[in-house]
Amino acid sequence: MSGCPSMDGDWLTYAEAAERLNTTPEAVRQKSIRGRWQRTVGNDKRALVRLPDGWPNSVRTPSGRPNKPNVRTPSVPRPDTQLIKALEAHLAAVVEQLAAAEARLVAADARLAAADARDAQHAADLAAERAQTERAIAAFAAVEQLLDVLAAERARPWWRRLVG
User: Fold this and answer.
1) Using the 8-state DSSP alphabet, how is residue 22 labeled?
2) Of 51, 73, 108, 115, which is most buried, counting CB atoms within 10 Å of its CB?
3) Residue 76: CB partners within 8 Å, gap ≥ 6?
4) In a domain, 147, yes or no
C-alpha cells in the first residue's frame, strides 16, 4: 500500500474480486500481494483491492460467457499408484507380523495351561504330603503319650512296683 491510492476504478472486497476472477478470496489476496495491487481498508474495516488495468471487469465463468452461474467441475484426484503399492506392501508386512504375534500368543497360552496343570498337580502332591505328615505327627504324639506313661511307671520305686 505504497503512496496514496487512486480512487478511480472499482474497489472490491477479496470475495467480490474472487467471484469476478473465478477463484478464491485467498487466491485474490495472494495475487494482490505478489502483484502489488492497490489495497486499502473500507469504512467497514474490510480490505478492499483494485484490480489492475486489463483484468476482466465482468464476471467470468469456465465457459467464458458472462452472467452465467459459476459452475466448477470438481477435480478428480488421480490415484498415486506408487503410494498405493507401498501401502499395500506395508499392510501385508503388518498382517504377517500380526499372524506371527497371534501364533506366539497361542503358544504362550499353551505353555500357561501346562504350567497351570503342573501347579495343580504340585498342589495336590503337597496336600497329600501334608496329610501324610499330619498322620505321622499324630502317631508320634500317641507314642509320646505311651512313653510318658511308661516313664511315669518307671519313676515309681522298685518296691512299689513289686507290691503292686
Assistant:
1) T
2) 51
3) none
4) yes
